[in-house]
Amino acid sequence: MTAHTLGRGWRLFAILVLGFASGLPLALTGQAMQAWLTIDGVDLATIGFFGLVGVPYTFKFLWAPLMDRFEPPLLGRRRGWLVITQFALAALLWWMSTLSPIGTPVLFAAAAVLIAFLSASQDVVVDAYRTDLLPDEERGLGASIHVFAYRLAMILSGGIALIWAGQWASWPRVYQTMSFIMLGCAVVSLLALPRVSAALKPLDSDPKRELVGFVAMLAGVVAGYFIARQTLILFGLDPDDANRWIQLLFILAEIAVALPLAAWAAKRAGFETLNRSLSSYFDQRGAAAFLALIILYKLGDAFAGSLTTPFLIKGMGFSQEEVGIANKVIGLWLTILGAFIGGLIMMRLALYRSLLLFGVLQLVSNFGFYLLAQLGKGAWGAVDVPAFDWVIVSLADPATLDWLLLTVIAGENISGGMGTVAFVALLMSLCNQRFTATHYAMLSAFAAVGRIYVSPLSGVLSQSIGWPAFFLFSIVVAVPGVVMVWWLREAIHRLGRPQPVTEVDD
Questions:
Q1: 3-192+284-494 has CATH 1.20.1250.20 classification
Q2: Residues 181, 161 contacting (CB under 8 angstroms)
Q3: Taking the complete model, does pTM exceed 0.85, yes or no?
Q4: Using CA atoms, how far apart are residues 390 and 329, in angstroms rounded to an integer?
Protein backbone atom coordinates (compact mmCIF):
# COMPACT_ATOMS: atom_id res chain seq x y z
CA MET A 1 0.00 0.00 0.00
CA THR A 2 1.49 3.33 -1.08
CA ALA A 3 1.86 6.43 1.08
CA HIS A 4 -0.59 8.20 -1.20
CA THR A 5 -3.25 5.53 -0.62
CA LEU A 6 -2.65 5.61 3.13
CA GLY A 7 -2.92 9.40 3.17
CA ARG A 8 -6.15 9.30 1.19
CA GLY A 9 -7.64 6.69 3.52
CA TRP A 10 -6.66 8.77 6.56
CA ARG A 11 -8.28 11.88 5.14
CA LEU A 12 -11.52 10.11 4.24
CA PHE A 13 -11.64 8.46 7.66
CA ALA A 14 -11.40 11.94 9.18
CA ILE A 15 -14.33 13.10 7.01
CA LEU A 16 -16.35 10.06 8.13
CA VAL A 17 -15.79 10.78 11.83
CA LEU A 18 -16.48 14.50 11.48
CA GLY A 19 -19.63 13.94 9.40
CA PHE A 20 -20.92 11.66 12.15
CA ALA A 21 -19.99 14.14 14.91
CA SER A 22 -21.67 16.94 12.95
CA GLY A 23 -24.97 15.07 12.56
CA LEU A 24 -25.24 13.67 16.10
CA PRO A 25 -26.34 16.77 18.12
CA LEU A 26 -29.00 18.06 15.70
CA ALA A 27 -31.82 15.68 16.70
CA LEU A 28 -30.81 15.90 20.38
CA THR A 29 -32.03 19.51 20.41
CA GLY A 30 -34.79 18.78 17.89
CA GLN A 31 -36.94 15.71 17.33
CA ALA A 32 -35.45 13.55 20.12
CA MET A 33 -35.84 16.40 22.61
CA GLN A 34 -39.44 16.88 21.44
CA ALA A 35 -40.12 13.22 22.21
CA TRP A 36 -38.61 13.62 25.70
CA LEU A 37 -40.76 16.71 26.34
CA THR A 38 -43.86 14.93 25.01
CA ILE A 39 -43.36 11.84 27.21
CA ASP A 40 -42.72 14.06 30.27
CA GLY A 41 -46.09 15.76 29.73
CA VAL A 42 -44.99 19.21 28.50
CA ASP A 43 -47.87 20.95 26.69
CA LEU A 44 -47.81 21.22 22.89
CA ALA A 45 -47.44 25.01 22.66
CA THR A 46 -44.44 24.93 25.02
CA ILE A 47 -42.85 22.15 22.94
CA GLY A 48 -43.26 24.45 19.94
CA PHE A 49 -41.43 27.25 21.73
CA PHE A 50 -38.63 24.81 22.63
CA GLY A 51 -37.96 24.71 18.90
CA LEU A 52 -36.29 28.10 19.37
CA VAL A 53 -33.30 26.43 21.05
CA GLY A 54 -32.09 25.89 17.47
CA VAL A 55 -31.73 29.65 16.92
CA PRO A 56 -27.87 29.44 16.90
CA TYR A 57 -28.06 27.51 13.60
CA THR A 58 -29.53 30.64 11.99
CA PHE A 59 -26.86 32.98 13.40
CA LYS A 60 -23.69 30.91 13.01
CA PHE A 61 -22.39 33.10 10.20
CA LEU A 62 -21.99 35.90 12.76
CA TRP A 63 -19.20 34.15 14.68
CA ALA A 64 -17.90 32.01 11.78
CA PRO A 65 -15.39 34.78 10.86
CA LEU A 66 -13.86 34.53 14.35
CA MET A 67 -13.25 30.81 13.84
CA ASP A 68 -11.61 31.68 10.51
CA ARG A 69 -9.52 34.47 12.00
CA PHE A 70 -8.25 33.00 15.31
CA GLU A 71 -6.19 29.87 15.89
CA PRO A 72 -6.30 27.91 19.19
CA PRO A 73 -2.75 27.08 20.37
CA LEU A 74 -0.98 23.78 19.65
CA LEU A 75 -3.66 21.99 17.59
CA GLY A 76 -4.02 24.37 14.67
CA ARG A 77 -6.92 26.52 13.52
CA ARG A 78 -9.37 23.87 12.28
CA ARG A 79 -8.47 20.94 14.51
CA GLY A 80 -8.23 23.16 17.58
CA TRP A 81 -11.79 24.45 17.22
CA LEU A 82 -13.05 20.93 16.49
CA VAL A 83 -11.53 19.52 19.69
CA ILE A 84 -12.86 22.41 21.79
CA THR A 85 -16.43 22.19 20.47
CA GLN A 86 -16.63 18.38 20.65
CA PHE A 87 -15.35 18.03 24.23
CA ALA A 88 -17.72 20.83 25.27
CA LEU A 89 -20.64 19.10 23.50
CA ALA A 90 -19.93 15.84 25.34
CA ALA A 91 -19.93 17.66 28.68
CA LEU A 92 -23.16 19.56 27.93
CA LEU A 93 -25.01 16.43 26.78
CA TRP A 94 -24.11 14.80 30.10
CA TRP A 95 -25.29 17.89 32.00
CA MET A 96 -28.57 17.93 30.05
CA SER A 97 -29.14 14.28 31.04
CA THR A 98 -29.17 15.32 34.71
CA LEU A 99 -31.92 17.93 34.19
CA SER A 100 -35.71 17.60 34.07
CA PRO A 101 -37.92 19.37 31.47
CA ILE A 102 -40.65 19.65 34.12
CA GLY A 103 -38.57 20.21 37.28
CA THR A 104 -35.90 22.55 35.89
CA PRO A 105 -37.30 23.92 32.60
CA VAL A 106 -35.07 27.02 32.47
CA LEU A 107 -31.82 25.08 33.00
CA PHE A 108 -33.01 22.41 30.58
CA ALA A 109 -33.67 25.03 27.89
CA ALA A 110 -30.31 26.72 28.62
CA ALA A 111 -28.46 23.42 28.18
CA ALA A 112 -30.28 22.80 24.90
CA VAL A 113 -29.40 26.29 23.59
CA LEU A 114 -25.73 25.84 24.50
CA ILE A 115 -25.65 22.45 22.76
CA ALA A 116 -27.20 24.00 19.64
CA PHE A 117 -24.64 26.86 19.74
CA LEU A 118 -21.69 24.47 19.97
CA SER A 119 -23.20 22.16 17.34
CA ALA A 120 -23.63 25.08 14.92
CA SER A 121 -20.03 26.15 15.65
CA GLN A 122 -18.79 22.62 15.01
CA ASP A 123 -20.63 22.59 11.65
CA VAL A 124 -18.82 25.77 10.58
CA VAL A 125 -15.43 24.21 11.30
CA VAL A 126 -16.30 20.82 9.78
CA ASP A 127 -17.28 22.48 6.49
CA ALA A 128 -14.09 24.56 6.46
CA TYR A 129 -11.86 21.63 7.50
CA ARG A 130 -13.30 19.39 4.77
CA THR A 131 -12.63 22.07 2.16
CA ASP A 132 -9.08 22.72 3.42
CA LEU A 133 -8.12 19.04 3.82
CA LEU A 134 -9.31 17.39 0.62
CA PRO A 135 -7.58 17.91 -2.73
CA ASP A 136 -9.86 18.62 -5.70
CA GLU A 137 -9.95 15.02 -6.91
CA GLU A 138 -11.20 13.74 -3.51
CA ARG A 139 -13.90 16.30 -2.79
CA GLY A 140 -16.72 14.45 -4.54
CA LEU A 141 -16.01 11.22 -2.64
CA GLY A 142 -15.44 13.18 0.57
CA ALA A 143 -18.80 14.92 0.21
CA SER A 144 -20.58 11.57 -0.26
CA ILE A 145 -18.92 10.14 2.85
CA HIS A 146 -19.85 13.24 4.85
CA VAL A 147 -23.53 12.98 3.81
CA PHE A 148 -23.62 9.26 4.66
CA ALA A 149 -22.01 9.76 8.09
CA TYR A 150 -24.19 12.80 8.89
CA ARG A 151 -27.39 10.90 8.10
CA LEU A 152 -26.16 7.81 9.96
CA ALA A 153 -25.68 9.96 13.08
CA MET A 154 -29.19 11.38 12.66
CA ILE A 155 -30.58 7.83 12.45
CA LEU A 156 -28.82 7.09 15.74
CA SER A 157 -29.79 10.27 17.64
CA GLY A 158 -33.18 10.82 15.99
CA GLY A 159 -34.45 7.27 15.47
CA ILE A 160 -32.62 4.66 17.48
CA ALA A 161 -32.65 7.06 20.44
CA LEU A 162 -36.47 6.84 20.50
CA ILE A 163 -36.30 3.05 20.48
CA TRP A 164 -33.74 3.07 23.31
CA ALA A 165 -35.90 5.53 25.27
CA GLY A 166 -38.88 3.20 24.97
CA GLN A 167 -36.89 0.09 25.90
CA TRP A 168 -34.96 1.72 28.76
CA ALA A 169 -37.85 3.95 29.88
CA SER A 170 -35.23 6.65 30.44
CA TRP A 171 -34.40 9.67 28.27
CA PRO A 172 -31.55 10.73 30.64
CA ARG A 173 -29.81 7.41 29.96
CA VAL A 174 -30.12 8.03 26.20
CA TYR A 175 -28.45 11.45 26.51
CA GLN A 176 -25.68 10.00 28.68
CA THR A 177 -25.01 7.43 25.95
CA MET A 178 -24.86 10.19 23.33
CA SER A 179 -22.44 12.08 25.56
CA PHE A 180 -20.02 9.13 25.54
CA ILE A 181 -20.32 8.79 21.76
CA MET A 182 -19.48 12.48 21.29
CA LEU A 183 -16.56 12.07 23.71
CA GLY A 184 -15.22 9.30 21.48
CA CYS A 185 -15.42 11.62 18.44
CA ALA A 186 -13.54 14.30 20.39
CA VAL A 187 -10.75 11.87 21.29
CA VAL A 188 -10.40 10.88 17.62
CA SER A 189 -10.23 14.57 16.65
CA LEU A 190 -7.55 15.18 19.27
CA LEU A 191 -5.36 12.21 18.42
CA ALA A 192 -6.02 11.13 14.83
CA LEU A 193 -7.17 13.99 12.58
CA PRO A 194 -4.62 15.01 9.94
CA ARG A 195 -3.53 18.63 9.97
CA VAL A 196 -4.51 20.92 7.13
CA SER A 197 -1.89 22.61 4.96
CA ALA A 198 0.36 25.04 6.81
CA ALA A 199 -0.10 27.44 3.91
CA LEU A 200 -3.72 28.02 4.95
CA LYS A 201 -3.16 30.86 7.41
CA PRO A 202 -5.79 32.94 9.26
CA LEU A 203 -7.09 36.01 7.48
CA ASP A 204 -4.90 39.08 7.54
CA SER A 205 -6.71 41.64 9.69
CA ASP A 206 -6.26 43.45 13.00
CA PRO A 207 -7.20 40.86 15.68
CA LYS A 208 -8.03 43.48 18.31
CA ARG A 209 -10.37 45.29 15.97
CA GLU A 210 -12.01 41.99 14.99
CA LEU A 211 -12.74 41.26 18.67
CA VAL A 212 -14.00 44.80 19.28
CA GLY A 213 -16.24 44.47 16.23
CA PHE A 214 -17.60 41.14 17.44
CA VAL A 215 -18.34 42.56 20.90
CA ALA A 216 -20.04 45.56 19.29
CA MET A 217 -22.16 43.22 17.22
CA LEU A 218 -23.23 41.32 20.36
CA ALA A 219 -24.01 44.63 22.05
CA GLY A 220 -26.23 45.47 19.07
CA VAL A 221 -28.09 42.19 19.53
CA VAL A 222 -28.65 42.86 23.25
CA ALA A 223 -29.69 46.47 22.63
CA GLY A 224 -32.13 45.42 19.90
CA TYR A 225 -33.64 42.81 22.20
CA PHE A 226 -34.29 45.31 24.99
CA ILE A 227 -35.52 48.07 22.64
CA ALA A 228 -38.10 45.79 21.04
CA ARG A 229 -39.16 44.31 24.37
CA GLN A 230 -39.59 47.64 26.13
CA THR A 231 -41.43 49.15 23.15
CA LEU A 232 -44.04 46.40 23.24
CA ILE A 233 -44.35 46.76 27.02
CA LEU A 234 -44.98 50.49 26.56
CA PHE A 235 -47.86 49.55 24.27
CA GLY A 236 -49.37 47.61 27.16
CA LEU A 237 -48.30 44.09 26.18
CA ASP A 238 -46.94 41.60 28.73
CA PRO A 239 -44.07 39.27 27.70
CA ASP A 240 -45.32 36.73 30.27
CA ASP A 241 -48.89 36.85 28.99
CA ALA A 242 -50.54 33.41 28.90
CA ASN A 243 -51.60 34.16 25.31
CA ARG A 244 -49.08 32.31 23.12
CA TRP A 245 -49.64 34.73 20.21
CA ILE A 246 -48.42 37.63 22.34
CA GLN A 247 -45.38 35.61 23.43
CA LEU A 248 -44.65 34.88 19.76
CA LEU A 249 -45.02 38.58 18.89
CA PHE A 250 -42.33 39.46 21.47
CA ILE A 251 -39.93 36.87 20.03
CA LEU A 252 -40.37 38.00 16.42
CA ALA A 253 -40.12 41.70 17.31
CA GLU A 254 -36.93 41.15 19.31
CA ILE A 255 -35.30 39.33 16.38
CA ALA A 256 -36.51 41.92 13.84
CA VAL A 257 -34.88 44.78 15.77
CA ALA A 258 -31.77 42.95 17.03
CA LEU A 259 -30.45 41.74 13.66
CA PRO A 260 -30.31 45.11 11.81
CA LEU A 261 -28.85 46.81 14.90
CA ALA A 262 -26.19 44.09 15.19
CA ALA A 263 -25.23 44.51 11.52
CA TRP A 264 -24.97 48.30 11.94
CA ALA A 265 -22.79 47.93 15.05
CA ALA A 266 -20.48 45.41 13.35
CA LYS A 267 -20.01 47.75 10.41
CA ARG A 268 -19.33 50.79 12.59
CA ALA A 269 -16.84 48.96 14.83
CA GLY A 270 -14.90 47.39 11.96
CA PHE A 271 -15.66 43.67 12.18
CA GLU A 272 -13.81 43.40 8.88
CA THR A 273 -13.95 39.67 8.19
CA LEU A 274 -17.72 39.66 8.56
CA ASN A 275 -18.21 42.99 6.79
CA ARG A 276 -16.12 42.06 3.75
CA SER A 277 -17.76 38.68 3.47
CA LEU A 278 -21.30 40.10 3.63
CA SER A 279 -20.43 42.83 1.15
CA SER A 280 -19.08 40.31 -1.35
CA TYR A 281 -22.38 38.41 -1.23
CA PHE A 282 -24.77 41.36 -1.39
CA ASP A 283 -22.84 42.87 -4.31
CA GLN A 284 -24.19 40.00 -6.44
CA ARG A 285 -27.26 40.59 -8.65
CA GLY A 286 -30.44 39.31 -7.03
CA ALA A 287 -28.75 38.63 -3.69
CA ALA A 288 -31.78 39.61 -1.59
CA ALA A 289 -34.20 37.68 -3.81
CA PHE A 290 -32.07 34.56 -3.47
CA LEU A 291 -32.14 34.92 0.32
CA ALA A 292 -35.94 35.02 0.14
CA LEU A 293 -35.91 31.87 -1.98
CA ILE A 294 -33.58 30.13 0.49
CA ILE A 295 -35.99 30.86 3.35
CA LEU A 296 -39.16 29.96 1.43
CA TYR A 297 -38.07 26.85 -0.49
CA LYS A 298 -38.19 24.52 2.53
CA LEU A 299 -40.85 26.44 4.49
CA GLY A 300 -43.69 24.00 3.80
CA ASP A 301 -41.45 21.10 4.80
CA ALA A 302 -40.47 23.00 7.95
CA PHE A 303 -44.10 23.50 8.99
CA ALA A 304 -45.07 19.88 8.31
CA GLY A 305 -42.00 18.52 10.08
CA SER A 306 -41.77 20.94 13.02
CA LEU A 307 -44.11 18.94 15.28
CA THR A 308 -44.06 15.55 13.57
CA THR A 309 -43.03 13.64 16.69
CA PRO A 310 -45.69 15.12 19.03
CA PHE A 311 -48.27 14.69 16.24
CA LEU A 312 -47.49 11.01 15.80
CA ILE A 313 -47.13 10.17 19.51
CA LYS A 314 -49.75 12.39 21.14
CA GLY A 315 -52.05 13.24 18.22
CA MET A 316 -52.20 9.83 16.50
CA GLY A 317 -51.35 7.54 19.44
CA PHE A 318 -48.34 5.76 17.93
CA SER A 319 -45.78 4.31 20.36
CA GLN A 320 -42.25 5.71 20.71
CA GLU A 321 -40.83 2.51 19.21
CA GLU A 322 -43.14 2.66 16.19
CA VAL A 323 -42.30 6.32 15.57
CA GLY A 324 -38.60 5.61 16.03
CA ILE A 325 -38.62 2.76 13.50
CA ALA A 326 -40.90 4.38 10.90
CA ASN A 327 -40.14 8.08 11.10
CA LYS A 328 -36.49 8.07 12.14
CA VAL A 329 -34.78 4.84 11.08
CA ILE A 330 -36.70 3.96 7.89
CA GLY A 331 -37.45 7.62 7.18
CA LEU A 332 -33.85 8.78 7.24
CA TRP A 333 -32.72 5.91 5.01
CA LEU A 334 -35.45 6.98 2.59
CA THR A 335 -34.08 10.53 2.74
CA ILE A 336 -30.69 9.17 1.67
CA LEU A 337 -32.45 7.27 -1.15
CA GLY A 338 -34.24 10.47 -2.16
CA ALA A 339 -30.94 12.36 -2.24
CA PHE A 340 -29.43 9.63 -4.45
CA ILE A 341 -32.40 9.72 -6.84
CA GLY A 342 -32.28 13.52 -6.86
CA GLY A 343 -28.59 13.43 -7.74
CA LEU A 344 -29.24 11.10 -10.67
CA ILE A 345 -32.06 13.33 -11.94
CA MET A 346 -29.87 16.43 -11.65
CA MET A 347 -27.31 14.82 -13.94
CA ARG A 348 -29.91 15.27 -16.70
CA LEU A 349 -31.87 18.33 -15.54
CA ALA A 350 -30.53 21.84 -15.06
CA LEU A 351 -30.60 23.41 -11.59
CA TYR A 352 -33.76 25.45 -12.28
CA ARG A 353 -35.84 22.48 -13.47
CA SER A 354 -34.62 20.35 -10.57
CA LEU A 355 -35.54 23.00 -8.00
CA LEU A 356 -38.98 23.42 -9.58
CA LEU A 357 -39.74 19.68 -9.85
CA PHE A 358 -38.53 18.79 -6.37
CA GLY A 359 -40.28 21.81 -4.85
CA VAL A 360 -43.61 20.63 -6.26
CA LEU A 361 -42.99 17.09 -4.97
CA GLN A 362 -42.22 18.46 -1.48
CA LEU A 363 -45.49 20.41 -1.54
CA VAL A 364 -47.54 17.38 -2.59
CA SER A 365 -45.92 15.12 0.04
CA ASN A 366 -47.35 17.30 2.85
CA PHE A 367 -50.82 16.14 1.84
CA GLY A 368 -49.91 12.76 3.32
CA PHE A 369 -49.86 14.17 6.85
CA TYR A 370 -53.29 15.73 6.26
CA LEU A 371 -54.55 12.32 5.12
CA LEU A 372 -53.12 10.66 8.24
CA ALA A 373 -54.71 13.29 10.51
CA GLN A 374 -58.08 12.78 8.78
CA LEU A 375 -58.16 8.99 8.50
CA GLY A 376 -56.32 8.15 11.70
CA LYS A 377 -54.22 5.25 12.90
CA GLY A 378 -55.00 1.87 11.34
CA ALA A 379 -56.94 3.23 8.34
CA TRP A 380 -54.83 1.22 5.87
CA GLY A 381 -54.01 -1.69 8.16
CA ALA A 382 -50.57 -2.67 9.44
CA VAL A 383 -47.55 -4.79 8.56
CA ASP A 384 -45.82 -7.13 11.03
CA VAL A 385 -42.18 -6.46 11.94
CA PRO A 386 -40.34 -9.48 13.41
CA ALA A 387 -38.15 -9.22 16.50
CA PHE A 388 -34.53 -8.34 15.71
CA ASP A 389 -31.20 -7.65 17.37
CA TRP A 390 -28.78 -5.41 15.49
CA VAL A 391 -26.37 -5.03 18.44
CA ILE A 392 -26.88 -1.26 18.77
CA VAL A 393 -30.66 -1.61 18.73
CA SER A 394 -33.07 -4.50 19.20
CA LEU A 395 -36.77 -5.26 19.20
CA ALA A 396 -37.52 -7.93 21.81
CA ASP A 397 -41.04 -8.76 20.57
CA PRO A 398 -42.68 -8.66 17.14
CA ALA A 399 -44.38 -5.33 16.40
CA THR A 400 -46.71 -3.84 13.81
CA LEU A 401 -46.16 -0.76 11.67
CA ASP A 402 -49.07 1.25 10.30
CA TRP A 403 -49.22 1.15 6.47
CA LEU A 404 -50.54 4.69 6.13
CA LEU A 405 -47.79 5.96 8.44
CA LEU A 406 -45.14 4.19 6.37
CA THR A 407 -46.58 5.59 3.11
CA VAL A 408 -46.66 9.16 4.44
CA ILE A 409 -43.12 8.88 5.82
CA ALA A 410 -41.85 7.42 2.54
CA GLY A 411 -43.34 10.21 0.43
CA GLU A 412 -42.17 12.99 2.75
CA ASN A 413 -38.60 11.72 3.16
CA ILE A 414 -37.93 10.75 -0.47
CA SER A 415 -39.22 14.10 -1.79
CA GLY A 416 -37.40 15.95 1.01
CA GLY A 417 -34.12 14.22 0.13
CA MET A 418 -34.52 15.12 -3.54
CA GLY A 419 -35.27 18.73 -2.62
CA THR A 420 -32.20 18.92 -0.39
CA VAL A 421 -29.88 17.89 -3.23
CA ALA A 422 -31.07 20.71 -5.48
CA PHE A 423 -31.26 23.17 -2.59
CA VAL A 424 -27.68 22.61 -1.44
CA ALA A 425 -26.48 22.80 -5.04
CA LEU A 426 -28.10 26.25 -5.14
CA LEU A 427 -26.30 27.30 -1.94
CA MET A 428 -22.93 26.19 -3.29
CA SER A 429 -23.52 28.01 -6.57
CA LEU A 430 -24.12 31.25 -4.66
CA CYS A 431 -20.85 31.06 -2.67
CA ASN A 432 -17.90 33.28 -3.53
CA GLN A 433 -14.83 31.03 -3.25
CA ARG A 434 -12.88 33.76 -1.50
CA PHE A 435 -15.35 33.62 1.41
CA THR A 436 -16.68 30.06 1.10
CA ALA A 437 -16.74 29.23 4.83
CA THR A 438 -18.55 32.38 5.94
CA HIS A 439 -20.82 32.50 2.89
CA TYR A 440 -21.89 28.90 3.30
CA ALA A 441 -22.46 29.46 7.02
CA MET A 442 -24.59 32.52 6.23
CA LEU A 443 -26.65 30.84 3.50
CA SER A 444 -27.22 27.66 5.49
CA ALA A 445 -28.18 29.83 8.46
CA PHE A 446 -30.88 31.48 6.35
CA ALA A 447 -31.91 28.00 5.21
CA ALA A 448 -32.48 27.10 8.87
CA VAL A 449 -34.76 30.10 9.46
CA GLY A 450 -37.87 28.16 8.46
CA ARG A 451 -36.94 25.10 10.50
CA ILE A 452 -36.30 27.14 13.65
CA TYR A 453 -38.83 29.97 13.61
CA VAL A 454 -41.90 28.10 12.43
CA SER A 455 -41.79 25.90 15.53
CA PRO A 456 -43.43 28.34 17.99
CA LEU A 457 -46.05 29.30 15.38
CA SER A 458 -46.66 25.61 14.64
CA GLY A 459 -47.36 24.83 18.29
CA VAL A 460 -49.83 27.69 18.58
CA LEU A 461 -51.52 26.94 15.23
CA SER A 462 -51.92 23.21 15.81
CA GLN A 463 -53.63 23.88 19.14
CA SER A 464 -55.81 26.61 17.63
CA ILE A 465 -57.01 25.03 14.38
CA GLY A 466 -56.36 21.29 14.83
CA TRP A 467 -54.04 18.89 13.01
CA PRO A 468 -55.90 18.49 9.67
CA ALA A 469 -56.16 22.27 9.10
CA PHE A 470 -52.56 22.71 10.25
CA PHE A 471 -51.25 20.35 7.56
CA LEU A 472 -53.40 22.01 4.90
CA PHE A 473 -51.78 25.30 5.99
CA SER A 474 -48.32 23.70 5.53
CA ILE A 475 -49.26 22.99 1.89
CA VAL A 476 -50.32 26.61 1.34
CA VAL A 477 -47.06 28.05 2.76
CA ALA A 478 -45.06 25.77 0.46
CA VAL A 479 -46.47 27.51 -2.63
CA PRO A 480 -44.42 30.77 -2.42
CA GLY A 481 -41.13 28.83 -2.52
CA VAL A 482 -42.12 27.15 -5.78
CA VAL A 483 -43.31 30.49 -7.20
CA MET A 484 -39.96 32.09 -6.24
CA VAL A 485 -38.09 29.40 -8.19
CA TRP A 486 -40.15 30.21 -11.29
CA TRP A 487 -39.74 33.98 -10.78
CA LEU A 488 -35.91 33.66 -10.49
CA ARG A 489 -35.59 31.17 -13.35
CA GLU A 490 -33.32 33.38 -15.47
CA ALA A 491 -31.02 34.16 -12.53
CA ILE A 492 -30.86 30.46 -11.59
CA HIS A 493 -30.01 29.54 -15.19
CA ARG A 494 -27.07 31.99 -15.00
CA LEU A 495 -25.63 30.13 -12.04
CA GLY A 496 -24.82 27.23 -14.34
CA ARG A 497 -24.88 23.54 -13.63
CA PRO A 498 -24.51 22.57 -9.93
CA GLN A 499 -21.37 21.27 -8.29
CA PRO A 500 -21.29 18.09 -6.14
CA VAL A 501 -23.25 18.80 -2.95
CA THR A 502 -22.46 18.58 0.76
CA GLU A 503 -24.70 18.38 3.82
CA VAL A 504 -26.93 21.16 5.22
CA ASP A 505 -29.45 21.57 8.46
CA ASP A 506 -33.10 20.68 7.08
A1: yes
A2: no
A3: no
A4: 13
